Amino acid sequence: MLSSIRLLEVFPEIGPVVYRGNIRRVLVFRRHFGLFYVVEDRGIILHALLDLRQDPQSIMRRLRSI
Fold this sequence. Notes:
about 70 residues; globular; alpha+beta
């Protein structure tokens, strides 16, 4: 996961936008987990590390709370 965070430092917009026009995701840990983040003027804000093998509706409920 640290390599993904280092990659985000250099290329903050590498992850595709997956929710609400600004929440991005990068895959980590053999693509089983998604690191959800937002790029802001002050830097990268990490919001959630979620297991992507769970119900997609559970993931969407969690993203709505961001």
